[in-house]
Specification:
Elements lengths: L3 H5 L3 H12 L1 H4 L4 H8 L3 H10 L5 H15 L8 H11 L2 H15 L3 E5 L3 H15 L4 E4 L8 H4 L2 E6 L6 H12 L3 E6 L5 H5 L2 E4 L6 E2 L3 E2 L4 H17 L2
Parallel strand pairs: 1-2, 1-3, 3-4, 4-5
Antiparallel strand pairs: 6-7
Length: 242
């Protein structure tokens, strides 16, 4: 039901509905469309668009299909946050997402050098990605300083793999733009296709998990999907690197 293709069509407001539904699946079963709209802080029209993008004629059909989906696919979720992660794995466990990974691998193989870019937690994952790719035979570097100077020599025949949860961090956007200006391909891994960073990229992989912050400042969003994508790309690379 919640395939990667369907989720990718959702706009920001519809994503609010999706994240609310995933986090409150038991309660949603008994909500009216107005109650869901109020809880997700959107309009009933947005909820209806959300339903139709999941191939439901209306809210009533969505509730029926959602109930069947839970009965057939969803185990009990005792741990906080597990439902979002399991939903992510279900959304990418298909041929469509596998083909997206294959396209990304082709871009990586056609590039002479790989530069992973990120700041904060994404910076730590950029370092991990560079090491993982190097382990499978595709030597890579990482940059976790968004003010690092980008030069023509650095960008020549290179691919910048930029990691960002929101895809809206100004420093990372500026940094990614510098790579583009120096004719360096940019592949992004973000939480959603609608972010400015994703739209700036030559190619984007998204993972559709809502951002979580403490005090509105400290990001504690799960990074499990990012690690999965990096390792999936790395394993595919391992089969093709000479």
């Amino acid at each position: 039901m919640f395939t990667h293709a369907a989720i990718a069509t959702l706009n920001n407001l519809e994503m609010q509905v999706y994240h609310y539904v995933i986090k409150n699946r038991d309660a949603v079963m008994y909500m009216t469309i107005r109650e869901l709209a109020d809880a997700a802080e959107v309009s009933t029209t947005t909820v209806l668009r959300f339903c139709r993008k999941l191939h439901c004629e209306g809210y009533s059909e969505f509730r029926v299909r959602f109930k069947l989906y839970l009965e057939q696919n969803e185990p009990q979720q005792p741990d906080f946050g597990a439902s979002e992660i399991i939903s992510f794995f279900k959304s990418v466990n298909n041929d469509e997402f596998d083909k997206l990974l294959d396209r990304a691998v082709d871009i990586i193989l056609s590039s002479e050098r790989i530069i992973f870019v990120g700041a904060g937690t994404s910076g730590a994952l950029a370092k991990y990605g560079a090491r993982f790719f190097s382990n499978v035979g595709k030597f890579s570097n990482h940059i976790d300083d968004p003010y690092f100077p980008v030069t023509n020599d650095m960008a020549k025949n290179a691919l910048a793999i930029v990691l960002s949860v929101s895809g809206e961090t100004e420093e990372i956007l500026r940094f990614a733009s510098q790579f583009s200006l120096h004719h360096c391909k940019v592949l992004t891994i973000t939480s959603h296709e609608q972010s400015r960073l994703a739209k700036l990229a030559d190619f984007n992989l998204s993972w559709h998990v809502s951002q979580t912050r403490i005090g509105g400042v400290y990001d504690i969003t799960t990074q499990v999907p990012v690690i999965y994508i990096l390792e999936a790309l790395g394993r595919k690379l391992a089969k093709k690197v000479p």
